[in-house]
Design a protein that fits this description.
Blueprint lengths: L1 E6 L17 H6 L4 E6 L1 H6 L6 E6 L2 E6 L7 H16 L5 E4 L11 E5 L2 E6 L2 H9 L5 E3 L6 H23 L3 H10 L1 H7 L1 H12 L6 H15 L3
Parallel strand pairs: 1-2, 1-5, 3-6, 5-8
Antiparallel strand pairs: 3-4, 6-7
Length: about 230
């Protein structure tokens, strides 16, 4: 079964600022048939529920976390909570991350930034940035974008592909297994990037007689990058 880290409110947990959840039925009822979820919420961990809303304020490119009404600087508490949540999900064999859109912590390109009281466009939330840095070439998405059928299909495909890649990396005992993996993903790889598909084929051919471990690591490194295209 897949393991997926997910913003806890998307599972329906009542931990948003106003003590509500925002259950996503596709994730819980459809994806939930194939995945177990590792929930996280740095805002709940840092400030409890219910809580005052927060926003990200830029000061000379430094990202401060400020409460909207009382104007308190809670940046340090936020960073401590993010570090704790990151350690939790890093301790699990997850194959993807699903984030809550528009959240100051978890939005993926949808979080509002401010300079003073003025909006400064939309970017990644602070925990989304942390996850992208810690999980390079990794399936990461926010739930709002999964309303698009193509993006949803592509993301779910990435989850299963990454899961299979992790399993191969951990359990491969022979070249036949690497060849079988490459064969199974042949058409998917070609559709993503013809050039990378050919490079992966050369790795599998092993003309330099490298060890299985070396080949598997080189193959999977490029394979994961291919799935982020």
């Amino acid at each position: 079964m897949l393991k997926v880290a997910i913003s806890a409110c998307l599972l329906g947990e009542p931990i948003r600022y106003d003590k509500t959840g925002q259950r996503d039925r596709f994730l819980t009822d459809k994806l939930g048939k194939y995945a177990s979820f590792i929930p996280f919420c740095p805002e709940h961990l840092a400030f409890g529920t219910p809580r005052e809303t927060i926003r990200i304020v830029l000061e000379n490119e430094y990202k401060k976390v400020i409460t909207v009404f009382s104007k308190n600087d809670v940046t340090e508490a936020m960073h401590k909570a993010m570090a704790q949540e990151l350690r939790k999900i890093q301790s699990e064999p997850i194959c993807g991350i699903i984030l809550k859109s528009k959240s100051p912590s978890c939005g993926l390109g949808s979080t509002k930034y401010y300079v003073g009281e003025m909006g400064e466009g939309k970017k990644d939330g602070l925990f989304a940035l942390t996850c992208k840095e810690a999980f390079e070439d990794f399936p990461i998405e926010e739930e709002a974008r999964l309303l698009d059928p193509w993006l949803r299909e592509n993301f779910i495909m990435q989850l299963f592909a990454y899961h299979d890649a992790m399993r191969l990396e951990k359990h491969a005992q022979s070249m036949n297994e690497l060849v079988a993996f490459h064969t199974a993903y042949k058409f998917l790889l070609q559709s993503k990037h013809e050039g990378n598909y050919r490079l992966l084929g050369k790795i599998v051919a092993n003309h330099k007689n490298k060890s299985l471990q070396e080949l598997t690591q080189a193959y999977l490194s490029l394979f994961k990058k291919n799935h982020r295209l």
